[in-house]
User: Fold these one by one.
Assistant:
Number 1:
Amino acid sequence: MAEQFSNREGIKGMINPTRYGLERVAYWMQRLSGLGLLAYLIGHIYETSTILNGKAAWNNMLSLTQTPGGHLVLVIVIGMCVFHTGNGIRLMISEGGKGIGRPGQPEYPYRASSLNYKQRLCIWVSIALAALAMMYGAGVLLGD
Amino acid sequence: MRESIIMKIHYGTALGAVALVAIHILMRMSQKYSDSLQYQNVIANYHLLPYALMLEVILVLLSVHGFNGLRVILLELKQGVAYERAINYGSIAAMAALVAYGSRTILMAGMGVS
């Protein structure tokens, strides 16, 4: 029994970002950016709630968040947001059966038709849009 | 609820949130960024009813999308009846808590209770 499972990597195999190419990297980036954005959402809701404590409390919170470090976090959030959106739209379209190729007989070298150039192009476009948005955001926030 | 329906809600909330968050960001860009964060400006945003309603909708959409996404990630990592039930109910509870906390800010700031 132990021999039967000796080659199974379990979660370690699943989280290996170097395997299965760009699609697996996108899979991880989608999840990590999602977790980052959820953390930001919770932080942002807490941050804005300080306005209920009056102007002094609000200005005190701004003095913590409106710093170069705080702006850097916002720039990263912009990048995560744009990538998550772009890659998420790709996933929605793929789940609708568009752009994943036709099913066929498995033939050597067993390339999955779903992992095609359209999918890779969409991932690269998402990364490029995220980079552009980060540059624009940095210009607005850090140049303010 | 069937997972296929939950995923449709996940995608629907994503598309709705993208559109509304774009408006939310554009409101910040309608003036100098640091000026838009001044106390009076932020309070004025909450007093504007359509904008406050939009913030409430964004809050609900992002909470549902965010905590359902977290639920999916956690269910991918581990399975089991008790675990899955705990994750499902935990996600709903966290979602409800975040919506309640955010709504409190929108309501109180909108009504001028501060």
Number 2:
Amino acid sequence: MKKRFNKSALIMGLYILFLMLPIYWLINMSLKTNNEILGTFSLWPQNLTFANYMVIFTDPSWYWGYINSIIYVVMNTVISLAVALPAAYAFSRYNFMGDKHLFFWLLTNRMAPPAVFALPFFQLYSSVGLFDTHIAVALAHTLFNVPLAVWILEGFMRGVPKEIDETAYIDGYGFFRFFAKIFTPLIASGIGVAAFFCFMFSWVELLLSRTLTAVDAKSIAATMTRTVSASGLDWGVLSAAGVLTIIPGALVIYFVRHHIAKGFALGRV
Amino acid sequence: MKTVNQKAWFLVLPVLLLVGFSAVIPLMTVVNYSVQDTFGNNVFYWVGLEWFEEILHSERMHNALGRQVIFTTIIMLIEIPLGIFISLHMPQKGVWASVCLVLIALPLLIPWNVVGTIWQIFGRIDIGLLGYSLNALGIDYNYVQNATAAWITIVIMDVWHWTSLVVLLCYAGLQSIPDAYYQAAKIDQASRWNVFRYIELPKMMGVLLIASLLRFMDSFMIYTEPFVLTGGGPGNVTTFLSIDLVKMAIGQFDLGPAAAFSLIYFLTILLISWVFYTIMTNIDKREGI
Amino acid sequence: MAKITLSNLAHSYLPNPQKDADYALKKLNHVWEDGAAYALLGPSGCGKSTLLNIISGLLTPSEGQIFFNEQDVTHADTADRNIAQVFQFPVVYDTMTVKQNLAFPLKNRGVDAQYIEARVNEIAQMIGMQDVLNNKAQGLTADAKQKISLGRGMVREDVNAILFDEPLTVIDPHMKWELRTQLKALHQQLEHTMIYVTHDQTEALTFADKVVVMYDGKVVQIGTPKQLFEQPEHTFVGYFIGSPGMNLLPAKIEGSIALINGTAIELGADYNNPTGKVEIGVRPEFCSFSDDGSGLMVKINRVEDVGRHKIVRTQFAGINLNIIAPSSARIPADTCHVKFDLAAINVYVDGWRIEAQQTKHEAAL
């Protein structure tokens, strides 16, 4: 027993080291001045500086990147869940004409490469005057988040016995009251998991958010890639910006840590 | 048993409208472009399937597809077994389990361009720990100029980024195995390998298929990370399908070929995913008995 | 096959158990005789699974030792104890065929292939699965899967003991009866030491030679089904075994007379003057209506006709008292007098049965 635990601990330790080392290096870079980064090679900052972070917190073109990203990510999560909930309920409870084909067609959208949609999206949203708005990115991201949310929620809903619906209807609940009062609390963890994934995939995406925004709704990811080319590689600020993008994700993981394992199985274990 | 109820269509209507707006209309645009050509000024004329023929025979597409297939194969061959292996060594409960879960999930929530940036910095020979150390050890490593080094870096980056997804899925599968199975195996004197082969692997099959499907799809669409890291270079050696497509569509504005390219690309993914999906639903059904 | 000795055994799931209540299994000395069939009976949470897991080696006891014959196996691995165990829910290897499942424990021990073939066929016959030997285990019903588990438990002939952990929970009622009978027959045939954990008294009483009753982490009585019925050593045994359980009446005892809420009852033996919480226990089967007005005057609440007999629910001064009457018996209306069979009265002090003085006296002579 003891011996096996140590072996496992060693393997886990090595794997986590492998995962953390590049992140550590990014943090290390973000706390150095550019002179130090390019001048000397050191495993930790010799002259600790927060100047890189101050640049981001004081320059609107930087910190608005974060705000814009958060805005469209939240919008996307809300929209995705709002439309996915009733649809997932329909798929988990009823047979109707073309249901299987519809379900698969929905999933195919999760399989669509964003690169395929980048240009058409640009033209579509430009033509309806939504280019460079938060809602444009939020809607574009529903392309892959809605199918995923439907899929996850359907898995969780299938785990709720049908008898609960029937009992509620017999007890005189209407559909909407039943859905809000009884059903939603039962699949709360599923909703949490779906929200987590919507947040995750919207937060990490670059191609569409960059294509659909220019100034007003520019995402932090786009800000980062553009600044790289413009300011001649300011490694310190770039690293600091990178570190700051990791924080929201880390916070979200921390809050859902008890549900991660089941969540990643998408309710299908 | 599910009841037949055509009114359920009302419940899926919002999804239909939304996805219709954000998927069908753009896809129609793509189809429209794929069969037309233009001399500018928004004047288009019908060219039939010419673009498809051109793309299907173009060496550029073949090369990008070849690179893509090799890349996807390599990372799946590494990530799936490695993910299973790591998940078998995860602590089962307690504080350490939470700590490991949080740390392992972290790379999954880093924006993809930042993943590229992290490895761009980490691998550089002047300021990166990896590049600097390797060169200090006398190994010639420079992912900006050397094709092999670029490939290795991209593969390691993807393993770094996505193995955790496989780990977490497998871990969830393992958690669902009742203790009695392990106890019975002990009593039956099953070897470690047999426990894995006859208890753990069968229970993980479902989640492993999900993992494979997700990894296949996402690696086949990979764009951001290699774009930030190598920009598709040196030369074209890391130009995967999406990178090539974006170059063609937005960089060169070759709308016709890009559209034909898009459709072929999409259909390829669909076809392979459909195979996965069919296997998966069959397994779901079998377990449902 | 082996005799299993538990010596000062105790277990707590807490790292530093202080008081009695911290122990899931309180200090215990017991010898499981070689070749006997035991049932371990008790309500859920009484520590029976803990005890079973200690015997099978899945748990290491926090105190005391366990011996197989003369060998100390307290810290030995499950695999080294050479035991078989059948769990509450079917544990089968889904991807294997029924045959491979049954052969698995033998194959892992490097047994000769010819012997395996013969033995597997023999076991398949016993559990009635010879027709589906080459089917995958996955598609089978829960019943069939549990039969495979039972078969895998019995496939090895040289095991020290076979442990059953509520093995019939998932089985259909009519199959339960059949499997239990089969197990009993197998025990007589194979003469393995068998320990059968259950919370179902019928299962325990029909299967076992000796029943070990556990309550709150303690073994409260070990005995044959007859002993458990006639002389429950603890009020819990009286209450838990039997349907309905033993009637318990708080009493004050003076010599051979019991005063129950003021009414005097003859006990038929001298119990001295016990102090503490004194109760007398009489099984409903040994209560009857008296015609002469002697005994306790009870109020009849309800009569349940269960076919073979009638259960009469009555109350005496607020204490429930059940009587089993023959189905032909005429039940008086409203109130009546109840008398007890003298030989069937047990006296309990603080929950534990005490012997009558007289009997002790006689035994001493």
Number 3:
Amino acid sequence: MQQGDKTVQNKNKYGIEITKDLTIPKLFYEKARKYGKNRVAMREKEFGIWRPITWHDYLENVKYLALGLLSLGLENGDKVSMIGDNRPEGLWAEMATLCAGGVGVWLFQDSLIDEVKYIIDHSDTKFLFGEGQEEVDKAISILNECPKFEKIIWDDPKGMRNYDQDYLISLKQVQQMGRELERQQPQLFREMIDKGHGDDVALLFYTSGTTALPKGALLSHNNMLTMGKHLMAVDPCLATDDYVSYLPFAWIGEQMMSISCGLQVGYTINFPEGPETAQNDIREIGPHVMFAPPRMYEQMTRTVQVKYLDATWIKRKLYELSTRIGYHVADLKFQKKQIPWYWAFLDWLAYIVVQKKLKDHLGLSRVRNAYTGGAAMGPDHFRFFHALGVNLKQIYGQTEVAGISVVHRSGDIKFDTVGHPIPETEIKITEEGEILTRSSSVFLGYYKNPEATEETLQNGWLYSGDRGFIDDDGHLVVFDRTKDVFTLRDGKPFSPQYLETRMKFSPYVRDSWVIGDKREYVTAVICIDYSVVGKWADEKKINYTSYQELSQLDQIYQLVEEQIHKANKDLPETARVVKFVNLYKEFDADDDELTRTRKLRRAFVEKRYHDIVDALYSDNDNVHIDTTIKYEDGRQAQINTDLHIRKVKDCKLTVS
Amino acid sequence: MAVSNAIKEQDVLLEIEDVHMSFGKVLALAGVSIKIREGEIHSVIGPNGAGKTVMMNIINGLYMPQKGNIYYKGKKINKLKPYKRAKLGMARTFQKVEVFGGMTVLDNIRLGRHIHSKSGVVSGSVYIGKTAREEVEHRTFIEEKIVDLLEIEHIRNKPVGMLPYGLQKRVELGRALALEPELLILDEPLAGLNLEEVEDMARFIIDVNEDENWKVTCLLVEHDMGVVMDLSDHVFVLNFGNMIIDGTPREVQSHPEVIKAYLGEEDLYATRR
């Protein structure tokens, strides 16, 4: 029961006092006035060049956009939705909405029409900022079904030349309307900002919804600002820092870094050219701080592992040597032991020869603090980054606390925990083992869902639905979602997520789904990584035409079996994966198998693949699949195939 | 669609008049005539071996017609070399991509800017003054107009030979566009592409044809009937060196001989949708 760190003063080191009166627009206005034309607020890579946008430009754009929204008829508390890639216009739209007294709602860029419709309709959205043709098309198709939905604002003219519906308006036109309004009422923008109060709703944020429809969490200005302040008290950032914004704004973590923290510190936010260039653009910027869900780090690990397999003999040997040194030093650090001078020297050598270059390629060369959160990260990935000398920390939090509540402290990192609560945040564990949080960042409630609010918010405590405990060092250990926790055949509880992340350390495994609650033994459904396994097959001169065919090849089963065997090694016998099957496709958010943040929707896949589950617990070696799959463009295809079921070697089906 | 009769002579960008071409005893083109008007997408369809590529090679100047004339903007260009035709504003892509595999995407596209380079040998060899300024202008043009249009930001510095086929086709289109052509000849731009790539490519062709920045007249040779009928203003049907019909997609689709010779063979030319 860790108490918050009371020593942190109300006024933090950036000279900002977060009172109940402060709002995000007020802070924004203050910063923009202070920095003016002398500081770069954001950069966007466009046409191959990084183009700076100063705080002055940022303010001007937001001002006219906000006034334009007023001219369009935005009233206090109206909802404005945003959809599109990470780009300055997206952030301007959000900030303008807040300045004009509206409430911001973000949608995932790749949301399907049904998802867009649900959120637009449920949130009572009046205006939608869509990036370009694709988003506008989505919005047009649902316009008639959402009675409160009035206007669509777009900013990328590409492909928009034949659209002339009167509910469409370009961002530039809205800003022009704003300019006219300013001429009539020059003080209006200031007055609007001054009207705001910290307890007003700033954002309506939809949770990813692993079980049911997404719920809309209402977050106040104060929630967002105190959250940022508390994180910055732990790991201060500098105004000269660079941050790369490339993860969806509809994810609370990105809001936290771009708005809550970014605004307080005033660091530069960099926007990559497009989603495909993000990795390369990150390398060019070399950010100082990074916050990404585990899948991004998993992807980096996979990249390194695959490049390693491709490298020449001498490079491979050097890499092996340097990682061995790295792992040893990292383990010493985890155990908080003194590092002997000769190991420190070897570590320095490893850094010079291998790690420096490697970190540069991953865009991690300047990173002071890298955070991962949103899902569990496997210990193997975690150790991998520390062996590279990257200060990777786990965080724990949720949309309902405006981001995070628990984080590792530098020099006090344990890879199976998530660390200590941030200042002025209390964490409590109920008798059932549920994690509760109380702080000034706890949200106001769910939009139009009093039952869920009542369940989640009790006496100021947030009931997370996560199971965990606090270890001897006062670190919080998050076990898993309460409803997901397994009971193994020996009656012990076990976390399926832990098993899944262990298997995902293999570059050949992209996704895994572990089954075994109250069953005789544990089994797994594996989605192979098409590009990595495909490349492996090419090198072995194995023929295949599609994912489906590749996944069912005997050699591939052999390969996956080895990977599972490795992951099984340190596990208690009852938790080992005994049987597995390679799925004929990858899990996909478009098929509802994953959430938009790529979390497995367990209840759904269990229903969808019940045939496979049944077969895994029978004596069959095969399971017949006859199903239709839907492509994004609406076409359907029939899948008619047999999946093999394989037993992992050295695993017993029953207790000896 | 109101067409044909009302067209004035000056609207015609390219005209072929009674062109004959034979290779030994094989008569590839037996008196073909076509008028391509400014701003349109004019497609040429026909079974394999109908003479479509020969027709493109004649327009582009790779072959000289044995009989008949070619007019570009009213000027006879029968004997003009291909590079001279490029200077007049003609660009093309090939059925099988003809890119420089060892060069980067940017360099391939830059090559297409060559005809717009005005600086001399001396200035070019030391890369100062005029050449440097020109290079910057070219690069700006390439980035703002071509890379952005074709969405190839993520590969601009990759060697073309390493890229998948679909992207190589895009690069080739980019190089043709770098010439800032008035007439773009596209020889089977969709061949060998998957569904997603076909949709992308079709969109680029429409963009190039309609967008304020481009307004390029397109001559399209293609087998994918769905795309051809969707995009084209006019469709020219060729069968063993002879024209069957030259009309609007609607007229072509209802022409009995076309149906017999071409569209009827559904299995062979089934559209990809």
Number 4:
Amino acid sequence: MATPLVVSEVAKSFTMHLRDGVRRPVVANVSFSVKAGECVVLGGPSGVGKSSILKMLYGNYGVDEGQILMDHDGKLVNLATAEPRTVLEVRRTTLGYVSQFLRVVPRVSALDIVAEPLQARGTPIEEARAHAAELLSKLNLPRELWSLPPATFSGGEQQRVNIARGFITDHRILLLDEPTASLDAKNRAVVVELIAEKKAKGTALIGIFHDEEVRDAVADRILDVSAFSPRKAAA
Amino acid sequence: MSTLPLLKVNDVSKFYGSRIGCRNVSFELYAGEVLAIVGESGSGKTTLLSCLSTRLMPTSGIVEYHMRDGQYRDLARMGESERRFLMRTDWGFVHQNPADGLRMTVSAGANVGERLMAVGDRHYGNIRATASDWLERVEIGVDRIDDQPRAFSGGMRQRLQIARNLVTSPRLVFMDEPTGGLDVSVQARLLDLVRGLVHDLGLAAVIVTHDLAVARLLSHRMMVMKDGAVIEQGLTDRVLDDPREPYTQLLVSSILQV
């Protein structure tokens, strides 16, 4: 089986045209790979570019240089240069993402938000909802909230909806941006368990975890992102 | 996923005398894809939409459409009657002002049924049944089927316009500021409805909007226009999260946070 994710010599900078075109380098020479069943945690201080790397991997940040190679249905796709519709196709079937915050869609219930990624892959709605219900109860989201749109939920409740949505599919690569940030100990433990299940199934995981306890429980390897600092590369 | 684009746009320009409407626009649209065209007033969004939907003839360039028979047809070379048939059956056009897309003095049911008759449906009972089914889908009470849209609120009229357009199962829908002029609560309901329908029906859509939140919610891809030209395009969340061009950065940074 091919390595699910290979990142090679990726560089990224922002040019801020509204600030007289100031160019702010973010990362340079980012190279690593993630094996099936492995969980790589991005480490390093705040502002070093951990989230930017995750966003480049997901395709919502552009890439200046380098390659992001993913094994998508047996074909190698370079996400750094892929067409938008290819990126969408990769996201539908290969690449999942649990963001820090839920983007709430007006009027859509928590249950349907969680079920949606499965539905998008062709699972019948009732089956997708059953699976969503299973995950939400595992994450201890009170049943009376399932039929409500999450706009009025607490931070922790929204994050659990977000986690369920990210974990419901069997994407081969899963990106995790601080999925446990606003959870209590009991639910953090559930997330650790969900991650362990994914690893056992051969999913490649890349995550950011500030919580040391969670990080130690899930990480196979910690990648120090300050090694990719562009200032260091220039020196 | 279909491998052939539904719409092929090649180097389309439109001049009004010496003034530029839009220039050198090229892109391809695939089945199931939603493309948002954003930019401020006067940037050429609506001109481009009109050129794509044959409401205006481009000054230069070619727009080709993948017909149901598998052939590509150059829209500018199509006969008037064929073009009108396409507009009434395989395409939809949702106007910003519902009064431009509805017949205000016939009943809601007839507004929906009219397009069915255009594709040859003649059975009154079937037409009425389909019309009431569609009214329900756009959340208009079936008891309003005999009322004229004049008696409807702005949001209801817009939903009726959408039902009228979608009843013939079009493959491509053009929308010009579909939520413009509506209250935010009404907007949210309409957006959710459009989002669901586009998803369920696998529609391709081109949506002109100046509202980046609408583009984020509905579209897969985005084109940013300025002075008639497309200055930046790509995946919607890439353009919004990592805008490259000065003008796009200005647009994105001008959104008010609530």
